[in-house]
Amino acid sequence: MTATAIVNSLAVLLILTSLLVVESRRLKVSAYFYSLQSLVLISIFLSLAVINEAEQLYLWSITSLITKVFLVPFILLRAVKATGIVEEEPPLVGTTWSVILAALMVGLAFILVQPFHMLAVLDYKTALAVSLAHFLLGLHCMITRINALKQLLGFCLMENGSHLTLAIMAYNVPELAEIGILTDAVFAVLIMSLIAVKLYKAFGTMDASQLKMLKG
Amino acid sequence: MSQELLLLVILTIPLVAALASFTFRLRRPLEFIQVAATAGILLVASLLIKEVLVAGPVSALGGNLYLDELSFIVLMIIGGLGFILGVYSIGYLGYDINKGEIKPSDLGLYYGLYHLFLFTMLLTVLSNNVFIMWAAVEATTLASAFLVGFYRHRSSAEGAWKYVLICSAGIAFALFGTVLIFANAYQLIGQVHEAVLWTEVLKVAGELDPVALKIAFVFILIGFGTKTGLMPMHTWLPDAHSEAPSPASALLSGVLLNCGLLLVIRYYALTGQAIGFDFPRTLLLFLGLASVVIAAFFILVQKDLKRMLAYSSIENMGIIAFGLGIGGPAGIMAALIHTVNHSATKALMFGAAGNIVHKFGTRNTDKIKGVLKIAPVTGVLLIAGALSLGGSPPFAIFVSEFLTVAAALKEGYLVVTIIFLAALAVVFGAMLNFIVKSVFGAPLEGKEKGDLNLLMLAPLVALLIIVLTLGIGIPEFLNQLLERSVEIILGG
What are the tens digits of pLDDT across the range A14-60? Predict the structure, then answer.
């Protein structure tokens, strides 16, 4: 197996874990799957680090391990606990259609990356397509799920997609930028989960489709 | 003080003030910090203007911080409105405490967030590093989310949730675009620390991959366009801007939108100088016109005063995007002037609306009657602000709307200009209707007469003076900044 094949197959594994995040009805299970998926993401970072001799990616892997595998799921689980809501409300689309939509998005992502001819991405077109697909899957989760925490998980998926793109195409960004991006990611999840809990306290539900006070 | 130091100082002031505000809990010290810090930012900004006008762009931290004439326009807005609304906040929150809407212990949170919000906006404007730019915009959302959800109303939590969710999702798109541009520039430049700098990327614009650049611009336009409140990514805006405390609403509409806009303009310049302006212009013309037309009708039917103003912000961001879409020196000039004019007018209007909220206890325009008789100064401020928003002379917005239309006609955009003008007429009608129905007329019974206190009037009078001054003519220093900015955008 060549180096790029390893990265590309890990990337496919990433799509599978993110489908599990989207399709699990139990919020805690979704959060655990997110943690698992972040581990897959980090293994991609490490493979890229070895293959490209990109030392920056080791640092990126360690910070991601702390933030994505432990911190973010921890924050999410805290929010689940604070609201006591175990299972998400029925989503706008059923599992079958949801998976079909997801497949379409993966297809779309592969089509979108075709015109890219930059040197940095030629080897990793599959991985790049996966990162974009991942991003779109997150968007899909955000739009079709009505549970606020599930929407937040959708955002986390989008973020993992973006971070994979970063690792593939821009692993050498200066530390300052890296710190900024990772800090934002953690604070975003923290603040959103705080507001989601506030929302629960105000409305007694996590069903975002019930948020109809502000219209027009 | 050296120029580089000034850039660092202007970022340090709000950061220190935020920490102090989160720490101290006493009302008077908090208010003192509020005034001192916002005045400090304004002072440093005015010191910097001399540098920028005389010696050109200022940079610090290895080029990661950068202030040129273009970003100075937004910096000026942050500094000016940050101070004016900072003072207004004190009066406004004092009323909230008297009414029992908030507890005195909530003040530290508000002021702390206010400074933090200013810091993130300053960082957005001053960063030249495309990744820090991106991170700073996301940070503006995070810093202001609790300002939106500041009141303990159910609707505030809803507004905050929609705000933070939609803007964060939007901004994720911008990261994709940013990465694409960086990776592309890195191949050409070969130096990481230079390839992240917008100014360096601009130098190699002509060699960037056109396809990647087009995709990147679309992603960036979706991302920062969400933050700017452009259609169809605008849906969070009316919720967030109406739910926040009024001075924060003014900051969101009058200042924050410009930060997103500045980044759209930065990438508009980059894309235009790389592959020609036709591509970014077409996109902005379309989004701009859509924003103006659709927002105009929401303004017309809106009964909630603050939501009406929020839709007006979408309309005005649309006007600016429309101006950029017209392009050329005239279109871009009109768009930049409109940015300044809208900011001053919108801060004035949200402030006046804040006075209404405290005086009438409602935002429903059906229940707001006879403002001029009950609170005469606020009434006059509302008339002036509404006329300016409606595009009537001698107020600021008339000037830039006129310039936008003139630029559009000069470029031969006849049909779109007619649609644009029709939408502006709808807005004018809506504003006139508001004045006739709510500001004039007999007050509903049982409303106590008397205007609000000086702290809630003086800052708004200052804004009115600015709106009038800009309506009469553009000051020389601003003109210089604007002309240089047009050159920066068009290249050369």
Answer: 888 988 888 888 889 999 999 999 999 999 889 888 887 888 888 88
Tell me: pLDDT of B428 over 60.
Answer: yes
Within 10 angstroms of residue B249's Cβ, the number of other Cβ atoms is 29
In a domain, B448, yes or no: yes
Q: Give the mean model confidence (pLDDT) for residues B323-335.
A: 96
pLDDT band at A121 (very low <50, low <70, confident <90, very high): low
DSSP string, B74-89: HHHHHHHHHHHHHHHH
Note the maximum CA span of chain A. 56
pLDDT in tens, A80-112: 898 888 787 777 777 888 888 888 888 888 887
Q: Does B138 touch chain A (CB under 8 A)?
A: yes
Chain B stretch 142-161, residues whose beta carbon is closer than 8 A to a beta carbon of chain A: 142, 145-146, 149, 153-155, 157-161
Whole-angstrom distance, CA of residue B72 vs CA of residue B262: 10
The reported pTM is 0.94
**CA distances (Å), origin A158, targets A173, B66, B173, B304, B373:** 20, 30, 9, 35, 53
- Of B134, B138, B176, Cβ closest to residue A135: B176
Mean pLDDT of A54-74: 90
- Assign B220 a pLDDT band (cuts: 50, 70, 90): very high
List, as ranges, residues 183-202 from B with C-beta within 8 Å of A: 183-184, 186-187, 192-193, 196
For residue A187, give the chain B residue with the closest CA: B142
The pLDDT score that the predictor gives to residue B455 is 92
Q: In this structure, is residue B165 part of a structural domain?
A: no
- For residue A4, pLDDT beyond 80: no
**CB–CB of B172 and A159 under 8 A?**
yes
In chain A, where the domains are located? 3-203
Which of A48, A131, A173, A175 to probe the B interface (max B CBs under 10 A)?
A173
Is residue B96 in a domain? no
Residue B326: inside a domain, yes or no?
yes
Choose among B241, B232, B92, B103: nearest CA to B160.
B241
Q: Which residues of A touch B129 (CB under 8 A)?
A: 174, 176-177
Query: How, if at all, do strands B58-60 and B65-67 pair?
Result: antiparallel
Euclidean distance between CA atoms B432 and B390, whole angstroms: 8
Q: Taking the CA atoms of chain B, what radius of gyration do you get in angstroms? A: 21
Instruction: Determine whether the interchain pair A174/B193 forms a contact, defined as Cβ–Cβ distance below 8 Å.
Output: yes
DSSP structural state of residue B436? I
Decide if B132 and A177 are in contact by the 8 Å CB cutoff.
yes
From B136, B160, B184, residue closest to A118, measured CB to CB: B184
Domain carrying residue B343: 277-492
Number of domains in chain B: 1
Cβ-based contacts of A118 with chain B (< 8 Å): 183-184, 187, 209, 212
Mean pLDDT of chain B: 94
ipTM, 2 dp = 0.91
Phi first, then psi: what are they for B58, rounded to 5°? -115, 140
- Distance in Å, alpha carbon of A5 to nearest chain B alpha carbon: 22
The amino acid that residue A93 corresponds to is: V
Q: How far A132 CA sits from the closest chain B CA (Å)? A: 9
Q: What is d(CA A1, CA B466) in angstroms, rounded to the nearest whole number?
A: 68
Instruction: Say what the pLDDT of residue A90 is.
Output: 78
